Structures are given as structure tokens and as C-alpha cells.
Amino acid sequence: MRAIVAKVILGYPCRGPRRPGVARSAPSFLVHEWDAGGDAKKGNEIRASVESGLREGRIVILLTGSRAVVPPELGAAADSTIYVTAPDRECLAAVLKAVDPVARRTSLRGLNLNAVTPVTLRLAYRPGTTATSYLRRLKALTQGSKEKASRFDSLHGIDKAKEWASALKLDLQLWRQGKISWHDLPRGLLLAGPPGTGKTSFAGAIADHAGIAFVPTSYATWQTSGAGHLGEVLKAMNAAFAQARLLAPSVLFIDELDTLGSRGGREQRDDWWRAIINALLEQMDGVASNEGVVMVGASNHPELIDSAILRAGRLEDRIDVGPPDVKALACIYAQHLAGRMEAGVDLQRIAWMSEGATGADVIRICKTANRRARHEARLVTTEDLIAAIGVDGVVDPQDLWRVAVHEAGHAIVAMAHSALRVGGLSLVSREKTAGHAAVSMARAGTLSPADLDAMLAALMGGRAAEELAFGDITAGSGGGDNSDLARATQMAVIAELSLGMRSEGLIWYPKVSGDRLVQLFGQRPDIEHAVRRRLDTAYTKARELIEARKPTLDLLAERLLARKVLSAKEVMDLAGKAGSEAIGPLACAL
């Protein structure tokens, strides 16, 4: 059987032993390939040929990438079903024997077996070629695929998503071997997260890792594929699904799903969007025809997606993709600067300085730093990277000391509470902020009133430190939605309205912000007063803690001003140097 498969792969006519009643000139085997995407006329021709072959007593072999696309009557007529796995060493030996019957045994060393497909096997063939020449071309064809597959290993900070992809790869192998059905595999995945976090790259890496085809598409692609009217849009959508079925097993990636919105969610042209979403759901529900197609969607605003798209059997799994954490950022830096940076560059420090950056941001930073070093004919230094990170904004030097004091104040208050952890301090200007203090809960789980009060005090620590050190304050604690005061206010509101921490009776409200929060305060002054009390208490507590630890505040601010960024360990060491007995439960915080 392997010899027959080998010859079919290479496009050879297959002839078996002579059978009584069959003309000698007619081959005993009749081979047809049936896959999704073919037109009805071709399907009818194959069906007629199969029926004719069976009447003549020939052995009919039907090749398909998915049994689900074979007409039920032909599938039921099969005497046996053989699941052919991806080409292995035994199959390759049969192919080489078919290519060059007189060749001696040829070594497969250096061949990337995972990248070998029927297509590469055919492309490597030339009439009259030797086994050695054939194998040399095959290695050249698969070498590029091996390098491409490494893209999966180069992705950092998305461990949960990589676990999903690895599980899918294993399931696909079992499905190809006939050990599980397609219904046992996950139908689809939604990747949700802000722009620039690598959702599209990861979708492609899923296909690379599993060794299957990648078919990217989007509503924008459908709309621009023709004249732009509804019929053309639906035609382009259907074509994308048809291509994915034709190339199955494959990943069909639908980007920017939130652009479709939700049915009934728009007053204008709702019929247009309703028709598109209904057509999309119909395509996604093609259980039989979609065998071998893994659907992956991406969205910057998943809350805008029609809920039916996210139901079981469609994009039933969801993974949130955010900016890489500090550990992942350090890995991305190491990957893109390998062999091009000086020994001793503290990538952990650089990663802390880059907190909040995306993978694309890191690549830009590395290119900028490398260009600076290249022009001076040397390797990349820490100073090159700091300069590249800080290009987004420049803080007036006379304000840097105040910013350093402000960020150190956050750390001082956080270190006084065992419920909090200080990740690091940064004095790098980025995205309209002059500095940053990474403060988080020390453990995941339920939030107690004491934990919430500790975080409120830490958020007020910057303002309290400024007032203590300079006798006045600036607007650094307020401003946008992500400012210290905004975050503290939101947290206090949630405590009063949603977390059951209100001292004047239990109540629950949904989350409110922006204009709705202003409206709520206007209608419920008692809630506004309760929020003010929480913030005032947190501010008083922060000021007391910092006043008792003034030497530590000065030391942290001075070192931050000099180094621009301090890691968690450096903050810990400096706090101990200033006198750990004045810090309180520092060891518990870090």
C-alpha cells in the first residue's frame, strides 16, 4: 500500500496485477483525489468515473484530505478506510525506491521530516533523477519551512496561548492518525487584546507550529475585494472559507472581528450588518464541510462582537493577549540583540524600563540602538538602549528630581504593606508619563478591605511624597483616566458600590466611569462623600508612612535619578541600606 501511495504522490499511473475479465491495457487501479473546493461538474465526473471503475472490476482508491467532503454514498460504498499519516521515514524510503529503483540505500540525515508534504515531494521530482539528487532538492525545499516553524519558539509572554497551540498540534496528529474525530478538537479561538500585541503573528505561528496552512482574512479584505456591495462582500467571505477548506487542515484567521459589530446594535444599515453576520455564522456552522479548518479570530474590542460568534462550536475559546511582562520583554531583547550587544548589558533593567511596551516596540528600540552602535563601529551598550527607549518624550531636567521623589513615594508606601509588591521604578518618559512605579498585589485571590486600603495609600504615595519633600504638589497625580487619582477614585467607587465594603449598608451597582460617574455623584452626594473619605484617609496614611521613612525616600529618589530605572531587587537593597527597621514588613512585600 505504501508503494501505491508513494507513486500516487509522485503522479505515477498505478498498475496492479492482471485480473480475469479486465483488458490488459487497462490499469487495475483507479485513483481519484476529492477535496473541498472543487466545482460540481468535477464532482459529477469523479462520481461517474468511480461507478464505471467499480463496474469494470477495478480497484478504486479515493484520496481526500477530509472524509466529510466525500459524498455520503461514495463513503458508504468504501470497503475500507485507510488513514495515511504525514510522510515518515518508511514512506520516504518507498518514494525514493519509486524515484530510483536501482539506487542504494540513501541517508535521510539533515532532512526536516516535519516540513515534508506531498507538495514538496512532487516539487523535488525530475524525470530520470537519481535518489541522491532528489533528496538534495527535497532538503532544500524543507529547510526554509524549518526556519519558518521556529517563529513559534520566538514568541514570548503568551504562555497560555502557546499551551493552546501545542495541545491543538497534538490533537491534529491524533486526528490525522484516525484516533480521534474532528468533533473532539476545539472549533475555534478568539485572541483579544489591544493593538500591537502580536495577535496576527501568533495566529500565523499556530499554523506554523502545527505544520498546516494559514489563511488570513478580514472584513476589510472582503469589502475591498470587489465593488463593495453586499453580494461582493459575501462572495469574498465565502471564498475565504472555501480556500481554508481546500487547504485543510488549515487555520482560518479572521482579523478585526469587532468591526462587524453586533446585530441590532446600530440604527443605520443594520440590515447590512445583520446579513453579513448571519452569513458568517452559516459558514462557521458548516460542521461537515469545515472538517480540518481551525477558526481563529482577533479583536481589539471583544465586547463589541456579536455574542453568537463566540458561542460553543464557533470561537468557543478565548485568550486575552496583552503587552509582554518584564520577563518576556527581557527575552525579546535577548533574541533581537543576540551577538550584537556588549557583555554585561542588564537586559532585566532595560525590560523594567520598557514596561508596557509591545513586542513591536522592542524591535523598534533594538533597531534604533543597533543603528547608533553601528554608526560608531561598536556593539550595543546599555546607554544605547536607554536612549532608544526614551525617544518618545523628554522631561525638563529640573522636573526629574520631583518625578523621582514622586515614584519613590509610591514604593515607600507599598513596601510598608505586606499585601503589596513593588516591581520596579522607572524614570523614563513614555506615553505622556514622566515616570512609573510598578505596584501590584502580592498574591492573586480575594481582595480584603485592608488590601484595598493598602493599594489606595500606595496610589496616593506619589502626591504625599511631593508635598513632604517640596511643600507643594503638582498635577502629576491627576489628569487622564490612568492617573494616580483617577485609579484611586475608581477603586474607591468600586469598593463602595460593587465589592460590599460600604460601611453604611450593603449595595451593588454596576461599574461606572466618566460621565456616568459624574452623574452618579450629582444624584448621590452620600456616595461622593464616602469616596472622598476613603481617598482622604489613604492620603493621610501615605503621608505618615513616608514622613517616618524620609531617609529611604531620599536615597531611592537619588539613585533613581542617577540610574533612570531600579529593579525590584535594587529597591529592596536600597531600602535595607537606609534602615530596614524603619520600613516595616518589607520582606513580606517583596
How far do the termini sit from each other?
64 Å
- Domain unit count: 5
Report the β-strand fraction as a percent range: 5-15%
User: Any idea of the CATH class of the largest domain?
Assistant: Mainly Alpha
Cα gyration radius (Å): 32 Å
The overall pLDDT, averaged over residues, is: 80
Q: Which secondary-structure class do the elements indicate?
A: alpha/beta
- CATH homologous superfamily identity of the largest domain: Peptidase M41
Task: Figure out the total of helices.
Answer: 23
The global form is elongated
The CATH architecture of the largest domain is Up-down Bundle
Number of strands: 10
Low-confidence stretches: 144-150, 580-590
Largest sheet: 5 strands, parallel
Order of strands in the sheet with most strands: 4-5-6-3-7
Q: How much helical structure, as a percent, in the residues? A: 40-55%
In CATH, the topology of the largest domain is named Methane Monooxygenase Hydroxylase, Chain G, domain 1
Descriptive notes:
This is AAA ATPase, central domain protein. By secondary structure, this protein is of the alpha/beta class. The protein has five domains: 76 residues, no CATH class; 61 residues, no CATH class; 162 residues, Rossmann fold; 67 residues, Helicase, Ruva Protein, domain 3 (Orthogonal Bundle); 193 residues, Methane Monooxygenase Hydroxylase, Chain G, domain 1 (Up-down Bundle), CATH 1.20.58. Helix content is 50%, strand content 9%. The protein has 23 helices and ten strands. The strands form three sheets. It has a five-stranded parallel beta sheet with strand order 4-5-6-3-7, sandwiched between helices. Strand 1, helix 2 and strand 2 form a beta-alpha-beta unit. Helix 16 packs across helix 21, helix 19 packs across helix 20 and helix 21 crosses helix 22. The radius of gyration is 32 Å and the shape is elongated. The relative contact order is 0.06.
